Amino acid sequence: PEDRGSPVLQIRGAVATVGRGVPALDGLDLELFRGEVLGIAGVEGNGQRALGDLLSSLVPLKRGTVLIDGSEVSTRRPGAMAAAGDGVIPEDRHDSGVVLDMTVAENLAMGEVSSFARGGVLDVGTLQVDAERLIDEFEIQCTGPDAPLWSLSGGNQQRVVLARELDRHPKVLVAAQPTRGLDVGAIEYMTVRLRAAAAAGVAVLLISSELEEILDLSDRIAVMYRGRIVGEMLPRDADLEQLGLLMGGTAA
Questions:
Q1: Please, are residues 191 and 199 in contact by the beta-carbon 8 Å criterion?
Q2: Please, what is the end-to-end C-alpha distance for the chain in angstroms?
Q3: What is the pLDDT of residues 178-201, one digit of tens each?
Q4: 3-class secondary-structure state, position 129
Q5: What angle do CA 85, 203, 43 make, to 5 degrees?
Q6: Structure pTM?
Q7: How far apart are CA 218 and CA 23, in angstroms?
Q8: 56: left (phi over 0), alpha (psi -120 to 50) or beta
Q9: From CA 152, how far away is CA 163, in angstroms rounded?
């Protein structure tokens, strides 16, 4: 639709390298609008992880800009993306989403611990009450706020990440491989929640190597190849052959 307003997330000419200077993003341009799910399709290893890391403040840009709600966000300042209203369900939750030895309550408050402090001292009561609210709202199966995160199933660990990010009322939600390693019930739950977030006005960026998930969830599909967007289509117009060619770097 033409009346969707200004993009909530804009990435312009993004160039970034990982490891020993290997180009991961190579002039990537992307726009994401309020209330839509934009699915990023592509064969793994074409810069999707770097895109997720860029929006997690983990990868700085060599060139290019990221704008959230029209304001440029520094890619060199840790936490700048989150502060600008960007929530992230990371590709590897154990690597950067949760701390298994911490409690459910602590994981739910991660990054926001200062808001539970009174005079520099952690207010455990408020932390517990808030955790109980989220456990209830997101139907997290656990023995309570004090349960160590390692005692939860993978699906419930992912619910903790989802609950934490959505509770901050993000403008943009990056969902990187959000259903990887989950069982059928957990996948269904995640799908419903991501749709609901978009319906509530959140701009959702879905990065997934599961083409079925991309086709099922997205309002718009962009294909990523060698660190840039090489094509775009609507799911209803998606031709699997054309998609496959784009993902392989050959435009039909």
A1: no
A2: 25
A3: 999 898 999 999 999 999 999 999
A4: helix
A5: 110
A6: 0.91
A7: 27
A8: alpha
A9: 14
